Batch of 2 targets.
Target 1
Amino acid sequence: MNLREFFKYTAVGRAVLIPARLLKVAGPHALRQIGKMLQWSVTSKEYYNHTYHLTDLNRDYLVSYIAAVSGQPLLLIEKYMAELETDTTFRSTLEHRTLVSRDRHNCDLEPRYGRRLGWYALVRATKPKIVVETGVDRGLGTAVIAAALKRNADEGFPGLVYATDILSDCVHLLAEPYKSFCKILIGDSVASLKQFQQPVDIFLHDSNHDPEYEWAEFLAIEQRLHPASLVLSDNSQQSSKLREFAGRLGKTFLYFQDQPKNHWWPGDGIGTAFTAGQTTYFPVAKESATN
Ligand SMILES: C[S@@+](CC[C@H](N)C(=O)[O-])C[C@H]1O[C@@H](n2cnc3c(N)ncnc32)[C@H](O)[C@@H]1O
């Protein structure tokens, strides 16, 4: 038996390799992670609801994901994502709002949309009339959705995002001209959803991430959904509730996992319940529903 065979095929060889595996195989990964943590601790002010850019590959996968769940062409989704990435007016508004907010000590100046690029492209491609987002926090997602709705309105497809949060001092990022496309509902989300009376085109859960609470939100909004509605969750990396709800609605569930660029955070994701093989375009869905 040679040395290679000794390490590979014997119990003693396996035991001898343990320190080498730890130091040479796993060790470099841990060091890279510690390096990112050290860099983040001095360059970022955030300590929760981490924001980050996606890796280039992950961003392209997000284009494919949104194309799949909306049934819309890949090139159109790519165009909408690039539209947000290159919107300097919107970016400047967010930076200004951060600078003048008392939250400037716990927020980074640079807006990093991450998976919210996908939310934006989905709203642009499907032209919803009513979007509901639970969980506002700084309002990055709300502002991104409102920016998409503003562009839709400019093209003749008006829409509103209703965003709920339990904290009244949320949403410091939202300002005109985007604010007009948004209504903030302060209070417990489930209570707000139970009172909501309008048909919901896109519902996005991003509030209390306890799976039982997520489920309670889905049940509270269920009566407001219609056959073409899309249901999204920002909690599907740790909860199967949207997958379960998709089954209840007779829809397909698909999950996209974020891959943050140069960040120690493992990333969040987008779960979507949708009708596979169908193009979601709400103006047409509404017309056929009334015919
Ligand atoms: C993850 S953050 C939302 C992030 C936001 N959607 C974004 O794009 O950055 C979760 C928010 O949910 C709110 N929240 C927690 N429990 C809630 C509840 N029961 N009802 C409404 N909002 C709640 C928190 O105050 C917090 O602002």
Note: The beta strands are 130-134, 160-165, 182-186, 200-205, 225-233, 252-257, 269-274.
Target 2
Amino acid sequence: MTARIDLYSFVPFDRGSRVRWLANELGLAITEHRLDARAGDHRGAAYRDINPTGLVPAIVRDGVTQFDSGAICLTLAEAHREAGLAVFEGEPGRAEFLSWYFFAASTLDAATYPLLVYKLFQPDAAMLEASIQRLMPHLATIDRRMMDRDWICGRFTIADILYGHALELQHRCGVNFAEYPAVAAYYERLRARPAAAGLFQR
Ligand SMILES: N[C@@H](CCC(=O)N[C@@H](CS)C(=O)NCC(=O)O)C(=O)O
């Protein structure tokens, strides 16, 4: 029987979109719960019972709570191994997959977040430009990686979902991928995934 999945998020483009995109790829139904960030819903005791960090996303999957989008995506991909949306333990390329997955979840995510801060939350053109410049070496890394492949690790996986989310946020914050043709082509490939509809701005 398919597990019931409750997803807690704020808006269609926050890190909850990674879980939503994956659920769509897997054909899983999710029950959405939208928290009001301005009202501080995520800081209340009720939500902290679900996610002790007070951040989104979190899920409750058949009564089991889990937080952090990267952890949630890995758990769901492993629970639906037949869909092949991760490189699993025992498969060639597992170590490489984990490296590119955690690079997206940690280093790239940390370099992308300041763009959102200086574009949306505390608008500051100079700080935004400085943050974009600090991001550029990571885009160069992804560009070199993507020159001879369609997806970051062989077939399409949850790692691509994390890259897709990061690239979309960067695009929304004014990053121009023209200098990095392999990144630009990768971004277009990610945007074309029907399961990602709702994240990418048209
Ligand atoms: N590594 C965590 C980061 C979670 C996170 O920072 N979420 C943001 C929204 S995307 C949040 O809840 N911010 C609210 C706040 O900082 O108060 C994940 O991927 O789930």
Note: The first helix runs from residue 16 to 26.
